[in-house]
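Lecture notes, part 5. Sequence design as translation. It can be helpful to think of inverse folding as translation between two languages: the language of shapes and the language of residues. The source text, in structure tokens, appears below.
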């Protein structure tokens, strides 16, 4: 087996490492280097960095047209394994391979598209999983070879859930490739749902929402774009919340939504919402460092009783 591994983000690195250890990868396809935060230096993708470290050839193409196909064909791959690559494969490109697999971090057909991990958190799901599928013309519509489900406890962030998926996906991919004579593709069953690209303003908090929904929003956008609100007209990032969303008690609060009720030293800032109380553990003001709720209160005298908007 000769695999072209297509991936870009950090979540795809452990699977690349596992397949490379098995001497299955002949080349790695990833996206071109992109400008860093200050826009001056071009930075390689996490997958490119891993491929270089592993001594694997790296292919970077803006488009998967004829030139890209020539580059890929030179390595004579027979299998395509894709995980968080970020580009669409056309029919001519897919025709280069006798086997085509895509790793997707949801239980398909649920959460097709580009943000399944955030969607599982935002939906307050108690279970999610990983699917390895055939690559079809439609977005994540391919038949399923293998799935693995696991439980969620309501405290996962996008970062911790990505880490968990990345570790599980690597062993799942090895299992699939070691048992191709056993695993047979099957059609996806059930109603499909789709996710969209995350936008910068998606992190805007509305305290008329339930505490559980706010809790999920903070966790889902903990990596980017970050959850935020306004305090006395100033933008405030909410970067950490206490406990599990599944344990938050519903019920109308006596205070107006957004009111900072108290500082609970064990659980954080207690804030009234449209249903239940949210406990915020970490916050960050513009140009300031992120801090815990106790340190934040120490620097913001008279904050108790004010409203987050």
């Amino acid at each position: 087996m000769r695999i072209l591994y297509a991936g870009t983000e950090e979540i795809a690195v452990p699977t690349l490492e596992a397949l490379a250890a098995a001497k299955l990868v002949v080349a790695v396809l990833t996206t071109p280097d992109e400008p860093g935060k200050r826009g001056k230096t071009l930075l390689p993708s996490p997958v490119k960095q891993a491929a270089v470290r592993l001594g694997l050839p790296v292919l970077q193409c803006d488009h998967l047209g004829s030139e890209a196909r020539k580059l890929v064909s030179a390595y004579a791959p027979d299998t395509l394994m894709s995980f968080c690559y970020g580009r669409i494969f056309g029919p001519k490109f897919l025709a280069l391979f006798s086997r085509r697999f895509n790793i997707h971090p949801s239980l398909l057909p649920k959460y097709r598209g580009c943000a399944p991990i955030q969607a599982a958190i935002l939906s307050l799901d108690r279970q999610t999983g990983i699917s390895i599928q055939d690559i079809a013309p439609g977005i994540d519509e391919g038949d399923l070879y293998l799935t693995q489900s696991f439980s969620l406890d309501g405290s996962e962030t996008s970062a911790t859930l990505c880490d968990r998926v990345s570790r599980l996906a690597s062993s799942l991919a090895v299992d699939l490739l070691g048992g191709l004579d056993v695993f047979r593709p099957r059609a996806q069953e059930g109603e499909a749902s789709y996710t969209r690209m995350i936008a910068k303003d998606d992190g805007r908090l509305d305290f008329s929402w339930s505490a559980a929904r706010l809790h999920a929003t903070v966790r889902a956008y903990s990596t980017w774009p970050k959850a935020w609100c306004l305090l006395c007209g100033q933008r405030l990032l909410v970067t950490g919340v206490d406990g599990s969303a599944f344990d938050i008690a519903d019920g109308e609060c006596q205070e107006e939504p957004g009111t900072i009720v108290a500082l609970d030293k064990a659980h954080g800032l207690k804030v009234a919402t449209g249903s239940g109380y949210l406990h915020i553990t970490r916050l960050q003001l513009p140009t300031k460092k992120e801090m815990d709720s106790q340190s934040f209160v120490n620097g913001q005298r008279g904050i108790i009783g004010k409203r987050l908007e």
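The translated text above is only one of many valid answers, since several sequences can fold into similar shapes. The helical segments are 13-21, 46-54, 66-73, 91-94, 116-122, 158-178, 211-220, 293-299.
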